[in-house]
Design brief:
alpha+beta; 2 domains; six-stranded antiparallel sheet; four-stranded antiparallel sheet; 3 helices; 10 strands; 18% helix
Length: 220
Amino acid sequence: MKRFALAVVGLVVWGLVTTAAPTLAQPFTAQIQRALLVSGFSYPSTGVTLGITQLFLGPATSTGVTATSATTDVQFTKVVTGIQDAAATAVLTLTVPNAANVSYLRVDVVGTLGAGGAIGAYEASCGGTFTVVTTRTVGVTVATGGSSLADSTGSVAVAGATSCTLARSLAITTSTAGATNVIEVRVTIAKGGGSSQNHRAVLNVRLINDLGGASATTVS
């Protein structure tokens, strides 16, 4: 610790009294190395310099496995309107290339009743979360599976209103081996009574691909 303190003092003094003061263009590690030399500190490798640099600037990367440059992560929010009551309606489309890859889709969704009910639009709403996994090898039809609706709020309704329910389903609409496959993610919003129609769904979508580029599954 005494030598480290001397190194820090050396860096400050060196920056004040030398004409070769550190600049933003000069790598910070080089400044640390020179400060160590000024203080008389002897270090066996640049690993020591890196460690001290990280004390000032923090680690260069987070701990754990770092995603490769090919990995993709897309997130967005989407609103779907005009959903008919109790009808499974496509709200997202997954397009899966004829390539070896795996993708993971997470969707937070809230559905709300349209106008025409006992109170009016937004009289009852319900939300939840679900996930979808796709996996594929070249020349073979995509395989997919989805979770049930989790973290469901159930029906949240204003006084005097009817209730609503929310469900999700999957449908592979194009499944030719050796070609691009298409999967529809569908949502069903149903009223508990009354005449509500033209329901709405708001989705927060996140899609992770193991491989990017031409191999990546896309969502729209």
